[in-house]
Design brief:
Elements: H1 2-44, H2 46-83, H3 86-116, H4 129-141, H5 144-159, H6 163-187, H7 191-215, H8 230-264, H9 267-304, H10 307-334, H11 336-340, H12 350-361, H13 366-381, H14 385-411, H15 414-439, H16 446-450, E1 463-468, H17 471-487, H18 492-513, E2 523-530, E3 533-540, H19 547-554, H20 563-571, E4 574-580, E5 583-589
Antiparallel strand pairs: 1-2, 2-3, 3-5, 4-5
Helix pairs in contact: 1-2, 1-6, 1-7, 1-9, 1-10, 2-3, 2-4, 2-5, 2-8, 2-9, 3-4, 3-5, 3-8, 4-7, 5-7, 6-7, 8-13, 8-14, 9-10, 9-12, 9-13, 10-13, 12-15, 13-14, 13-15, 14-15, 17-18, 18-20
C-alpha cells in the first residue's frame, strides 16, 4: 500500500509539473482571442464581434483536423517511447510535419477562395456582417500553416521535456499579437482584416521560436527527409480521429447554435455568445491543459502496460484537477460583470446582460467537461473507439444543439448556456453507464470505472512495487527483489542477479542523482515475472542519466571505474534507458 501511495505521489508531482506549460499553450489562442475581441468590440463595432463569433466553428473545424495529427502523434509516440521503439518514433515525427504542411496549405487555398469569391453565405445571411467576415477569413488564411505546425511542435517539445521553449514562444506570441492589433486595427483602421492578420503574423513568430531547438539539433527527434512511410499515416489518422471527432462535432454544433441564435435572438445573441466564449476560452485552457498532460501519461502507461500509473492518472484528475477547476469556476461566476465590461460597458444594452448570464451559467459545465475529456483521452489511447465516438457525438453536438433547440423559444440566448451544463450531466451519466454495462455491476473502484481489461499489464501477484528514498532502502529492496523471484519459481542464480542488479543501479541513483540538487527525490522500483523473463524497472525524477552511455564511455578505461554499471550490462539479457517526460526510466531484463 505504501508503494502504491509513493507511485501516486510521483504521478501527481509529474502531472502538476507538466500542467502549467500545457495550460499556457492552450491559453495562447484564448488570450489572443480576447485581444481580437477587445479590439473588435472597442474599435470596429458589434458587427465585427459577430464576425469573430461566426469564425468560431470554422476555426473549430480546422482545429479538429490539426487535433487528428497532434492527438494521433502524441499517442503513438507515447506508446513507442514506452516500448523504446526509436525507429517508429522518428517516423511518426517526420510524417506528422509533412502532413501538417500539406493539409494547412490546402485549407489556406480553400479559405482564400471562399473569402475572395464571397462563398460564405451558408454561414451568415446578415448583409452587414458578411463582408466583415469575408475580410476576417482572408486574414486568417495567412496563419493556417504556422498554426498547424506550431501545434505539432508544441506537442513534441513536451515529449522532449523542453516545455520552456514553448513557454517563451507563447509569451512572445501574445505580446506580438497585442502590438500588431494596435497597429493594424487602431492606427491603420484595417478593421476585420487587421484583426485576423495580427493573429496570423503572431503565429509565424510563435513557430519561429519553437523551431530553434530542432534547427540547433538539441532534440532527440529529428526530421527525416527519406520517403515517408504512408502506412503510418493511416495508423496516425485512425489513432487521432476518435479524439478529434469531438471538435468536428463541435463545428456542426457551432453552426447550428449560430443559426438558432440568428433566427430567434438576432446577431446580438451571436455577439454575446462570442464574447462569453472568448472570455471563458482563457479559463478553458485549464481543462484542456489537464487533458493534454493526462493524454501523454495515458499513452506512455499503456505502452509500458503500467496498470497502476494508468489508474493513478485518473485519480489525480478527480482529487486534484476537479477541486481546482471548481474554485476557478466560482471565481468566474463572482466576477461575471467586471469581465463583461472588458467588451461591453453599458449595462442598458441587451448584449451586456446576455454576456453576464453566459459568464454565470457556462462555467458550471467545466468540471463535468474535465471528466469527459479524461475518459475520452483514456479511451482513445486504449483503443476503445466506440466509447470515444459516442462521447464525441453527445458532447460535441447532440446534447447542446438538441437542448438549445428545445429551450431557445422560451429562454432565448440563455438556452445555449443551460444546454452546455445539461450536456455535461448527460455525458458523465453515460460514462458511468458504460462501465456498468461492461462490468455487469455498478463500478466500485477506478479500474472498474475505467473498464481496464483483466489481461492488461502484469497481474498483481506477478509484480512487486517498491519505493526507495535512501541508501538503507536500497539494501532492503535488493533482498525483497531476490525473495520475490524465488517465491515465483525463478532459479536461485537469476534471483540473486536480479537483486544484485537492482542494488547496483538504485544505489548509483541515490549516490549521484539524489545529490545533484537540493530537491527531494525518490525511486520507484518494479520487478515483474513475465513469461520466462524477470523484468526490473527503475524510475526516478533526478537529472537525466543514461547508464548505457556511461558504460560505453567506460570501455577501455580503468577497470575499477563504473564497475557496477559494467557488471549489470554483463549479467542482463537486455538493458534499455529512456527519459520520459522528465523521468529516467531504466528497464533491465534478466
Amino acid at each position: 500500500m505504501n508503494e502504491q501511495k509513493a507511485n501516486a505521489k510521483t504521478v501527481t508531482r509529474l502531472m502538476l509539473r507538466l500542467l502549467p506549460i500545457q495550460v499556457l499553450l492552450a491559453a495562447v489562442g484564448s488570450v489572443n482571442g480576447i485581444v481580437s475581441s477587445f479590439f473588435a468590440s472597442n474599435f470596429v463595432g458589434v458587427a465585427a464581434m459577430s464576425a469573430v463569433g461566426l469564425y468560431s466553428p470554422v476555426n473549430m473545424f480546422f482545429s479538429s483536423v490539426s487535433l487528428i495529427l497532434v492527438g494521433g502523434s502524441v499517442i503513438l509516440c507515447g506508446k513507442y517511447m514506452g516500448r523504446n521503439q526509436q525507429e517508429e518514433l522518428q517516423d511518426v515525427f517526420s510524417l506528422n510535419l509533412l502532413l501538417s504542411l500539406l493539409i494547412a496549405a490546402f485549407f489556406a487555398l480553400l479559405f482564400l477562395v471562399f473569402a475572395l469569391f464571397d462563398l460564405t453565405g451558408f454561414l451568415t445571411g446578415d448583409k452587414e456582417v458578411r463582408p466583415l467576415f469575408n475580410r476576417y477569413l482572408l486574414g486568417q488564411t495567412v496563419g493556417l500553416i504556422p498554426m498547424m505546425l506550431g501545434n505539432s511542435f508544441a506537442a513534441f517539445l513536451s515529449l522532449e521535456n523542453k516545455s520552456r521553449q514553448t513557454t517563451m514562444a507563447s509569451l512572445i506570441y501574445i505580446a506580438a499579437n497585442i502590438v500588431l492589433n494596435f497597429v493594424f486595427v487602431k492606427l491603420l483602421h484595417w478593421e476585420a482584416f487587421g484583426l485576423a492578420l495580427a493573429s496570423s503574423l503572431g503565429l509565424w513568430i510563435f513557430l519561429a521560436v519553437e523551431l530553434q531547438p530542432f534547427l540547433a539539433r538539441r532534440t532527440h527527434l529529428r526530421l527525416r527527409l527519406q520517403r515517408p512511410r504512408w502506412k503510418e499515416a493511416l495508423l496516425l489518422y485512425k489513432t487521432g480521429l476518435p479524439g478529434a471527432a469531438s471538435n468536428g462535432y463541435q463545428t456542426l454544433r457551432g453552426y447550428i447554435v449560430n443559426r438558432l441564435l440568428e433566427l430567434f435572438v438576432g446577431s446580438v445573441g451571436i455577439s454575446a455568445f462570442a464574447a462569453a466564449n472568448n472570455l471563458l476560452a482563457v479559463f478553458w485552457s485549464l481543462p484542456v491543459g489537464m487533458m493534454a498532460v493526462s493524454r501523454m501519461l495515458f499513452s506512455v502507461s499503456i505502452g509500458e502496460e503500467d496498470r497502476q500509473t494508468l489508474t493513478d492518472v485518473m485519480r489525480v484528475m478527480f482529487r486534484r484537477f476537479l477541486p481546482l477547476m471548481g474554485a476557478v469556476c466560482a471565481l468566474i461566476i463572482l466576477c461575471a460583470e467586471p469581465l463583461t465590461r472588458i467588451f461591453f460597458r453599458d449595462p442598458a444594452e441587451p448584449v451586456y446582460r446576455m454576456t453576464v448570464w453566459g459568464l454565470r451559467i457556462l462555467p458550471l459545465c467545466m468540471p463535468l467537461a474535465i471528466i469527459c475529456m479524461h475518459f475520452s483521452s483514456y479511451s482513445q489511447s486504449a483503443g476503445k473507439t466506440g466509447l470515444v465516438y459516442l462521447l464525441s457525438a453527445l458532447d460535441g453536438v447532440i446534447c447542446v444543439a438538441g437542448f438549445t433547440a428545445l429551450l431557445i423559444r422560451r429562454l432565448g440566448v440563455n438556452s445555449v448556456y443551460i444546454a452546455n451544463v445539461l450536456n455535461g450531466v448527460v455525458v458523465v451519466l453515460v460514462i458511468v453507464g458504460y462501465a456498468w454495462l461492461k462490468t455487469k455491476r455498478f463500478p466500485r473502484n477506478m479500474e472498474e470505472l475505467m473498464v481496464i481489461p483483466d489481461g492488461f499489464g502484469v497481474p498483481e501477484r506477478e509484480r512487486l512495487d517498491l519505493s526507495i528514498r535512501s541508501m538503507e532502502d536500497v539494501v532492503s529492496v535488493s533482498r525483497r527483489v531476490q525473495s520475490f523471484c524465488l517465491e515465483r519459481g525463478v532459479d536461485a542464480r537469476r534471483a540473486y542477479l536480479a537483486g544484485l542488479a537492482m542494488e547496483e543501479m538504485a544505489g548509483n541513483i541515490v549516490d549521484h542523482g539524489f545529490t545533484k540538487d537540493k530537491k527531494s527525490h525518490s525511486i520507484d522500483v518494479r520487478v515483474a515475472r513475465k513469461e520466462q523473463d524477470v523484468i526490473l524497472r527503475i524510475k526516478d525524477d533526478c537529472v537525466p542519466f543514461d547508464p548505457g552511455e556511461r558504460q560505453q564511455l567506460a570501455e577501455g578505461d580503468d577497470l575499477t571505474k563504473n564497475i557496477g554499471i559494467r557488471m549489470v550490462f554483463k549479467i542482463a539479457r537486455q538493458v534499455e534507458y529512456q527519459n520520459l517526460l522528465g523521468l529516467n526510466v531504466l528497464t533491465i531484463r534478466i
